[in-house]
Amino acid sequence: GCPAGAVPRRPRSAPQGPGSGRCPSRCLSRSSPWPACPWCSTTSRPAPRYGRPGPWSQGRSAIPFLSDPFLRPSPGARHEGDPADGFLPAQRGPQPLSGISAAGVQGSHQANRTQALNYGCIVANADTQEVQHYVEKPSTFVSEIINCGIYLFTPAIFQHIGEVFQRNQQELALCPYLGEESSNGWQRAEVIRLEQDVFTALAGSGKLYVYKTDGFWSQIKSAGSAIYASRLYLNQYSKSHPERLAQNKPGGPVIRGNVYIHPTASIDSTAVLGPNVSIGEGVTVGAGVRVRESIVLHGASLHDHTCVLNTIVGWDSTIGRWARVEGTPSDPNPNDPYAKIDSETLFRDGRLTPSITILGCSVTIPAEVVILNSIVLPHKELSRSYKNQIIL
Questions:
Q1: pTM for the whole thing?
Q2: Model confidence at 265, in pLDDT bands (50, 70, 90)?
Q3: Cα separation, 49 vs 118, whole angstroms
Q4: Domains identified in the chain and CATH numbers
């Protein structure tokens, strides 16, 4: 089905299942490279739903869809991955929650000893995979197994969250001054941190397990990491769904490496694309254009002989003829198989840290200029070259 993180609530009387015409994921109308949905026969991403339940003292009524379908899936249910199927493959090895009584499972990955300090570190039993110790961003080395931020819970997790809430309330009653500390407007007693409060309490209790994946994984905390994540996805597509990637064809553009081109995009036959390029819906690429390590979002227009390297081109942006838009790649150490992307600050020594170039939506780049390592905010019309700047 659709790669939905959670299925929105629907009336119980509504028909469901393939062919019913009612998609429980409420797919968006805009097409995308996701597989066809069996409910509505579209290739669309589902519309996400968000909610802010507020303090846990408001109880179960704070989450309107808690009873259906939020708590409906059972731990023994078959887990389906998304089209990349790189993290929780449904047909590779045992299911994460099969045969155990647990409140949840943490997805984990291996990092090197230095970078592991930037993540939540997990110490697990090598035989049972039970989490015995968990520390969020430790100051000294604890483990090379890091928390991926992907979890699979049973309904029992709400009981443990409630216990954490009650403990915080008791501590507040004993030490009232603790309530003065706030986070995002909530008193400390009302704030429940999943990693620091819940996971640390569950570690060693036999209720929390780890699922280690050897597939690709990357954090996206900076703009530069988006290009790297796109590369990982395209590489996975080349293995699991190669038909979705562009191929060299007579009369078509030159394709180098993994390239995705939306069917509605117009690409000149003299253009050279790749490796690691994604071309969105309705994009126009002129003659002699070179695009490498970039993401071009829908509606953008690259005029003749432009060069786009290590760049995210925003929606409906235009790059003039013979212009060059280039950024600095933010890749992990290629010689270390467990290296991750370092989350660098936006500024270093008072200067903009060199990273990929980002063009916001509806940005216009004139002909014959160079944009290097810059961030251009939406709806800007540039008139000259820029380097290492944020253009407001």
A1: 0.71
A2: very high
A3: 30
A4: 96-215 (3.90.550.10), 223-391 (2.160.10)
